[in-house]
Amino acid sequence: MSSPKDKKYLNVAVPTPLRRTFHYRLPASVDPAGLNPGIRIRVPFGRRTLVGVLIEATSTAPVDKNRLKTPFAILDDDPVLAPILLRLCLWAADYYQHPVGEVIASALPALVRRGADIAQTEEFLVSTEKGFTLDLSLLKRAPAQAALLRLLRGSDPSGLTRTRLKQAAVTAGVIRALVDKGFAAWISRRLGDQAPFDPGGVDYKATIELTEAQHQVVASIAAAGTKPSLLFGITGSGKTEVYFELIEKVLRAGKQALVLVPEIGLTPQTVQRFNARFNVPISVFHSGMTDRERLTAWMAARSGAAGIIIGTRSAIFAPLKHPGLIVVDEEHDTSFKQQDGFRYSARDLAVLRGQMEQVPVILGSATPSLESWHNAKTGKYHLVRLVSRPGTTMPATYRVIDLRNLPLTEGFAPPLLEAMKRELEAHNQVLVFLNRRGYSPVLMCRECGYIAHCHRCDARLTVHQPMGVLICHHCTSQIPIPRTCPECHGADLALIGIGTQRIEQTLSDLFGKHRIIRIDRDSTRGKHNMDRFRAEIQKGEPVILVGTQLLAKGHHFPDVTLVAIVDMDAGFYSANYKASERMGQLILQVGGRAGRANKPGVVVIQTHLPDQPIFRQLIEEGYERFADRLLQERKTYELPPFHHHALIRAEATTRQAPMNFLQSIAENVNPATSVSVLGPIPASMERKAGKYRAHLLISSDARTSLKHMLAHCIELAETSPSTRKVRWSVDVDPVDLF
């Protein structure tokens, strides 16, 4: 074994699309014994200067040492990427066949990967000695100031950051008033100097007594140790309370909990619930944060000052000083899979990280993914069930309306309209679900048959009537709604089909005295719109909620007693082999919004296919039997999770270029008995955003064989003469094959 003094070279991961690391000569003035993997190094790279991360110091280099350059600067004494996170990134780069430098860069906040000084300072609001001794009754005429002072007194001695104050909904005026009176003060402190939270100072405010079933689940998960647990609990069964109980145990031990949620829209709601339950600093990670906010959250997690870390998929790379538990809520959600660039699954990396950190991992869902369900049924995961709702609350009942031979009013059958009327008159709330935003999906000329298409995609333009535009939901191109047909100049333009905007208008005409709240990507685009809608719904007034799958993701609407699913037939007949799984998940997740309090709930499903076997099994026998049936079908047809897939995707500005590029790979791969190379074929939407797309599918029942074949294909792709004519990427375990 070589000694530290023999190590004269640095192996550095540089954020480039090249699938390798790069060696540099160790500066003579630097002692290699003080260099730890995970520190940042500013290096020359061609004509650019980049910030890389040290993988290791070595005694040899794979190239002539005279060709090696010397780094410009060593930026850190201590690693910015902890050893386990570095291992996680290296594993992910290898498994997902992505350039290691880009993988490591994606695990760091933007300011850190750009070389910012992480020893910077931040302001903290603390209570002064005068504030600690003040009789709070003297602030009875300023309750907001009293509440803030009480918060400062009970907080960690390090004080509260501006981000933490914002999470607690404290206004600038209230802060200024306390500071002016001398009861509070701002102090500056290095971010890295934050002390870990004090477990004895946490207020564990349990407001709900666990049921016997929940106690049993908590005990079962605790007994499983570090084996991953799949918590299969029906909607409204109290999975979050189970998380809370387990997190409390972790916090009392002085350790941290990492909680992943699928959507940015759920993050504020989740943070509010955690703040109400635990008086402990919380770090939040999501794509809507500024670079500065993300760095602050990252430092709080890294130092241990934050007891709970909540975020979307990128939070899987959040540093934890004292890891204790990882929770992946709604683990079935496809949002956990990154769909471009570094195409990783945060859910799968959570399981791997839990093994590396030797901490429990909980995957929770009312409708588990078939991959997780298979792992649980085969013993790889510990399976625990919550099959009932707390107290007297019962799961919603399902009612099917056969649309055959029924007259419809803008997509609504008479029995459904009658049911909606009854619930609204009873002062309840109604949720109408349609997974299609916009006003109408098709604009057609009745005279010549013209249909408005996107000029950049193989897709129809969707009518957004309130905005007066046609929008492509794939590339966001938009044009004004024409007054006459662009081809025959006829004036008889018809709007075919319904979207959430059209439903909103229809219901406004039919139920004019009741408030209609539409929740989709368009209506929630504003930063605080979702919070405003949620607050209005929680008032309990009779309203009609209209929305897409945003309404299916973990929301608690206690006064919704009727859920209407307007159009779900197409989901069971898609070319995508996962369509039935996703439609089943969506039906039960949306249906789970009904009857969550003490009011009974009903889910009404309109369909032209009431006797479809797998649909009947879902609503009559439940998700478990439904999932078992789909798994059997997957096994028969050699589909995941029994077979493993990887896609090589290619796109170019001409139709033939991606096909030729992938064909050259397919023709030159070495045949293997355990691996199939299928294609190339055009993507289901061949042209998107002006690019023609094609796919090459690699399939095997053995992951090792798949990995070797994929590596061979990547080598062929990188050396292909046409590689400069196309943009290509690798997708391991794709969520879609088309």
How would you explain this protein's 3D organization?
With about 750 residues, the chain is of the alpha/beta class. About 30% of the residues lie in helices and about 25% in strands. The chain is built from 21 helices and 30 strands. The strands form seven sheets. Strands 11-12-10-13-14-9-15 form a seven-stranded parallel sheet, sandwiched between helices. Strands 16-26-25-17-24-23 form a six-stranded parallel sheet, sandwiched between helices. Helix 16 (about 530-540) links the parallel strand 23 and strand 24 (about 545). Helix 8 (about 210-225) packs across helix 9. The longest helix is centred in the last third of the chain and has 17 residues, at about 705-720. The radius of gyration is 28 Å and the shape is globular. The mean pLDDT is about 90.
The portion of residues assigned to helices is 25-40%
Q: Which regions have little confidence, pLDDT < 50, spanning 5+ residues?
A: none
| Structure classification | alpha/beta
Largest sheet: 7 strands, parallel
Please compute the radius of gyration using only Cα atoms: 28 Å
Report how far the terminal alpha carbons are from each other.
Answer: 50 Å
What is the overall number of helices? 21
Number of strands: 30
Mean pLDDT: 89
Strands of the biggest beta sheet: in what spatial order? 11-12-10-13-14-9-15
The fraction of residues in strands falls at 15-25%
Shape: globular
